[in-house]
Specification:
single chain; alpha+beta; Nucleoside Triphosphate Pyrophosphohydrolase; six-stranded mixed beta sheet; globular
Length: about 180
Amino acid sequence: MTDFKPHVAEIWPLAVDDLGIWLISGRDAWRTGPVPSGSGADFEAKLELFDYGIVGDRVPWMHSTSWRDELPRLIVTFAAWVRPAGGDLVRGTWRHAMPLTVAASEAVGPARPHPPAEPPVPTYFHVLMHALRHMKWLSDPAHDATSAAVLASDGRWARHLAPFTPELARMFTEPYEPAA
């Protein structure tokens, strides 16, 4: 009998305030268990947010930004804009929220190069930075009018996404050099 690879949803819950963009989960994404055959990754991602008490208008925007094989599963990645429960300061709601900046991305550097016919193996941080660049790209009405309108409803997104280069793939800037 053949076993089939399960897929899971990975949610990078992001919030914005006057100080910047924050990863409210701390240092990593939230991940679901295997997605049941009668469900979908999007629905399971919303259930995961619900498990953290994040529902309704507290999630004005969510988008799948990528997917990757991470044996033994396939991971479908989502970025989700989450509004704080009360007040405007993100750390007032999520004490362990981590600030996200282009400077952090530059400090980490590009992902490890990979052979041209092989899949990339990014770190979780690279996946998160890719999601932010994807958000920046989607914030342009020429690319996604609906996402752009929702993200523009809070001008802080435009201000804090401005330093990010709106590229869909920028993690692999170093050429692959095969081992000698």
